[in-house]
Each structure stands twice: as C-alpha cells, then as structure tokens.
Amino acid sequence: xxxxxxxxxxxxxxxxxxxxxxMVQTGHWNKGKTLAEKxxxxxxxxxxxxxxxxxxxxxxxxxxxDHSAVDLWSTDFxxxxxxxxxxxx
Length: 89
Hints:
mainly alpha
C-alpha cells in the first residue's frame, strides 16, 4: 500500500504487458486474455474494497518514520488516487 502511493506520487507508469505476464504466472489472470487498463482498475477497486485498513496501517508503521503518512488510508482514498494518478504504459 505504501509503495503503491509512492509509485503513483512519482508518476511511475504501470507496464501492463509485464503485469499481465506476472499475473498469468501467479494464476491471477487468464493466459489468453489481454490485461487492459479498465481490467486493472476494476481489480484494484475490488481489492481496495477488501482491505482491512486498520491492519494495513499497523503493518507498515514499524517501517516508516512519519506515521501520519498513512492517516488518509481508506477505500475512498485509494480509489481516488487511482482515478487521478494511475498511468498505464
């Protein structure tokens, strides 16, 4: 989660071809289907709905010095930054 925010904040584009290959490799995507940006956005939205944000915050706090960096973490926050900042290349 923390890394996701960092990547979006630095405008690092998602390499859909590479991501698709890794998702096929791990069984999270069908080999014969092309991963499109709309597919990725739907998958991310579904994942954001399922996260226990209290637990995610607790998991990352020991590794960061600025604990306020996770104050905004929520379903709405991650959906919003994804809508505004996700770049696919």
